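Course assignment 3, question 2. Fill in each field.
Student: A.L.
Task: Predict the tertiary structure for the chain below.
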Amino acid sequence: MLQDAEGDPVGAAGDSFVVHMDREALNDYPQLGKYDVTVEIRDFEQDRLISWTILGQLRPQIGHVYGCRLEPGKDPAATVVTSFYDWSNIEQSWRDAGIFPVISEGALRATLGILDRTVRRGYPRG
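Answer field:
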């Protein structure tokens, strides 16, 4: 579970920042405890698309990608957000481990609810 992050706001593919994680809170792999990962931006189109991969301590790197596509909603003040998760190019050893998807569809859907609440509250950028 994401606990905190540090780094500059992203604005281009190749940008990155550090995320502090705590698996004990999720109780899925509590033996991992607290650890840091680097989020590396793969694709970035302002107000249209963002995708990223997770660079962690595991070797080989897993190679999965998360992302969001943004489209104008019917209401001019609305945005339709489509979340995606692509593990089609993961390392074969991770594919053989049979652990994908790591995050369930329900958990991904929950992140969209968190995003919605964050935007509605009007948290300032940066």
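Instructor remarks: The two ends are 22 Å apart (CA to CA). DSSP finds three helices and six strands in the chain.
Grade: pending
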